[in-house]
Amino acid sequence: FEPFDADEYIERLAWRTPGGGSKGGAEAFDPKKLLEEFVNHIEELKLLDERIQRKVEKLEQQCHREAKEFAHKVQDLQRSNQVAFQHFQELDEHISYVATKVCHLGDQLEGVNTPRQRAVEAQRLMTYFNEFLDGELRSDVFNNPEKIKEAADIIQKLHLIAQELPFDRFSDVKAKIASKYHDLERQLIQEFTAAQRRGEIGRMREVAAVLLHFKGYAHCVDVYIKQCQEGAYMRNDVFEDIAVLCQRVNKQVGEVFCSPETVMAKLIQSIFENKIQAHVKERLDETRNSDVEQYLKNLYDLYTRTTALAAKLSDFNLGSDKHTFLSKLIKNIFSCYLESYIDMERQYLQSRSGMILQRFYDSKNHHKRSVGTGSIQELKERIRQRTNLPLGPSIDTHGETFLSQEVVVNLLQETRHAFERCNKLSDPADLPKNAFSIFLLLVEYLCVDHIDYALEIGLSAIPSADAKNANLYFLDVVQQANTIFHLFDKQFNDHLMPLISSSPKLTECLHKKKEVIEQMEVKLDTGIDRTLNCMIGQMKHILVTEQKKTDFKPEDENNVMIQYTTACSKVCAYVSKQVKRVRRSMDGKNVDTVLTELGVRFHRLIHEHLQQFSYSSMGGMLAICDVAEYRRSAKDFRVPLVLQLFDTLHALCNLLVVAPDNLKQVCSGEQLTNLDRNLLHAFVQLRVDYRSARLARHFS
């Protein structure tokens, strides 16, 4: 039902009343009729309210009466429940009492029955014993092949009894029982073998349960293990065959034997000590003395596959300490090979690395020079670092850097394989030490014998600063050495660090790496510095040969048609070429560092060069054009300092052309105000009109 709305109710009532509509209609609005209708309706509502009120009171009285009746019923039920609970407790106590009596009676009956059963069993065994004593086995159980299980149980018990009898009086009967014991044992094993060949799991389980109490039970297990392996090794992959075999036997062994974990462990032990050990010995012994590389590969492969197989086998139930059990089996097979592993690894790595390097130098028809060691070489190195002088004759390498990424990749690949084998084949306690020894070999052959040697040759090939048309190949050496070192650093982080990160050897490795880097950086810095000197020497040679004194004091001041001098053009072309070479040869902050140094030296050269000439008015304008072109080349450096230096030089050149009256104003300008006055004076003195009293007076 919808909620009651008084306004809507009155509206409907007025609408139904004749003459009560608010909007007129057939009858005009009549308030008296509407009032009369309201009064009558109110009376009807009062009567209706009284009837409903009486009905509510009646229902409330009925509800109170039924609530009292229900409460009485609940009380009656509670009393009945309490009585029933008491009866239940009494019944439970009675049942417990009867049960106690029954258990006591059962114990008494068992106490009487057990001795009786033992007596019956003893009597039965004595009867069978008498037959052995008489020498004639008359009982059907010993003569009926179908009762072999029952006969086995009897003979096993008689055999235990016979062990306790004195030998001198019962030697014959003991021998007969033992003979029958071994005969039945042999028959049971034969029956088990036949059932295994037929695939009768149920019969195998029955016979194995009987043999469990015989001494030949272990022989039964051996027979089972031997037959399981018959025809199992049909693939070329013995490890895959073993995994399939063990998976199949693991499902079967639980259905046959009461202690499957023992049988499974014995099967795996047999496989490891026979099949795997023979396979490993055959694969390794044939290459151990003839092919060390193949021997190491085979050792790594066999050890990896054996440990992977052991991981699979650890999923089976092999007893409580299966991981130790499997580890011991692996150790027994590989211990004799792992003891000498690291020595053979280092021996192979030395031989292989030396061969890779020698093959490279032979391909270049290069006989490797001795770079020298000892105090004399160290003294030369210190002198070279401090004076930047080439000690010893310069050699011509014909553009050969004597660095090869192919050689580096081969060395790193051999070392990576060595690290992988080291990680797998080394004892955990020896792993950091072994990895460090491999790293030292990498440093020796890659960093010292290859990179450092190439740097030495590169340094020797750098011409003197005053050489003409010198070929500067050392930047190519820098480029390749930088690339190679990135590869070396990547292998250090990816393959060596995981092996030594948690050992004291980490400090030694980092120290050795830092030492190697610093040694190479010293030689790289020396070579780059001398190369920059050669570049400046080349520029100086161009300026000396191409720049004429008449360039800046032309005979005909009004007939100068060039934008800048030939010397400037050639120097700028040379600078642009060298800037590109530097960017191509280096990366990161090294580019800015080297270009900054080259730019500063370039500026110094031009600054000193300009001070060697006298300038007429038109010559000064041409000098400004040259410096503007030099400044355009300086922008290629992308070094703010270099550009600032050439901006200042350009401002200095303005002193060569400015009117005498404006000299002081120009000198106090933004770019020249902080410069030394002597420097400004030196540039003003280069003007051909400096001697005039007017100019000297204005600058004084």
General description of the model:
The protein has about 700 residues and is mostly helical. Helices cover about 75% and strands about 0% of the residues. Helix 14 (about 405-425) packs antiparallel against helix 15 (about 430-460) and helix 16 runs antiparallel to helix 17. The protein is flat. The N and C termini lie far apart (about 115 Å).
What is the helix fraction of residues, given as a range?
Answer: over 70%
**Average of pLDDT:** 82
Please compute the radius of gyration using only Cα atoms: 56 Å
Major sheet details: none
Ranges where pLDDT stays below 50 over 5 or more residues in a row are 373-379, 388-393
How far apart, in Å, are the first and last alpha carbons?
116 Å
SS elements, strand count:
0
Into which percentage range does the β-strand content fall?
under 5%
